[in-house]
Amino acid sequence: MGKFYISSAIAYTSAKPHIGNTYEIVLADAIARFRRLIGDDVYFQTGTDEHGIKIEEKAENAGVSPQEYVDNISGEIRRIWDLMNVSYDKFVRTTDKHHEEIVQKIFKKMYDKGDIYKGEYKGLYCTPCESFWTPSELVDGKCPDCGREVKEVAEEAYFFKLSKYQDRLIKYIEDHPDFIQPESRKNEMINNFLKPGLKDLCVSRTSFNWGIPVTFDPKHVVYVWLDALTNYITNIGYDPDGSSEEFNKLWPCDLHLVGKDIVRFHSIYWPCFLWSLDLPLPKKIFGHPWLLMNNDKMSKSKGNVLYADDLVNKYGVDSIRYYLLHEIPYENDGNISEELVEQRINSDLANILGNLVQRTISMGIKYFDGSIENKGVNDEESLKFIDSINGVFDKVKSHMDTLHVADSLTDIFDLLRDSNKYIDVEAPWVLAKDDKNKEILETVLYNLLESIRVCGTLLEPYMPDKSKKILEEINSSSKEFTFNSNNKYILNKPEALFMRING
Question: Which of 144-148, 290-294, 311-315, 498-502 has the highest average model confidence (pLDDT)?
């Protein structure tokens, strides 16, 4: 298989991430793990975005230096990503010395090319979003992204010639229909931003100091988006003076996974920056939906925030990973509450998955001392069931290839439901009453164990710990995704995978 470079957006170090922020990294991790499972050479990068006036102000309010402030928050973000069992290959920070040096070189290269020029910026600025707006873009006089107050600023600044690349970008997006997904995000970029006309982009500031200094004009610091977006190349060996073999292997990125609110920066600013550097564009930018709390956007000021570590302490890592990956549709916002999490744990994880594994293994131990082989005595129902087992991988892969991650989990749980129905139809406890049915009974249990093995293997990207535990209980290390008629199972005593929650 080929290489697969996936990135999440780097998390802004203004505050501890809530469960809505955590959704993205779990989604990226499931995709990265799936690509590894099918044999791809995966590189998965995440990290933290650490410069800007917002950080400078928060550090001042906290009575610490900006570096101390971002060290603390970046450490907290990394702790939560690790808690969620995220298998990143590199965790980057925009305060890393190497990143800062390459950003300075990138800025100079763009300047020397004539794509960056000095001017004066007058505009309406939203500090939390680190974004400038025109009066017509405001909603009720406030920032269209976050709804907060904006303030008028005027200062000397360097500008990037975004307008130079406008027509080229429109044509590229139209010629590459899969470049921005879902389709609704692509249409929004073209109709709301590109076709009305791109204005040149402010890429330096003088009103604060917490940023990467412009080497040839040190009273300016590089403005956040040019600094932040370039992390995708500075950390894999890009250098304007000569890039590394790793860079040539990994770039272009196969997938930038970002929240729907920052698709504009990744699908408009970033391609133009890359063209300015004479680099190819990433293959795909996917703007995922949000996770809402009781159908409302999470916000500390509203007091409706849930944190990953609190949920994990209460319900376990894989239960929360499952909820996040299953409950948020491809394109529309999802919803979370503790009540909804508990319902899903009881209905899917305890009843469908946990119950199937426990009762199948228990019957295997009870009727055959835990040693099961395939006797191949299949009735019509069994043959139909084997077909279902053989069909699940193609369904899962098809959905993962198109980033319909929730649907891929549904595919696996459909087979788990079929497995429970198969038990009800074949009724092993009835077969066990007559010794003449011994080979039929062993065949039925074998078929069930094959289903559990295939599902357990396919669940690894979504629930890595529980997947491992399932495969340990049935003593399997096989990575096959289809029915194998020649396995031999030596079963271990089952333990409850998930406990039902009684409210």
Answer: 311-315
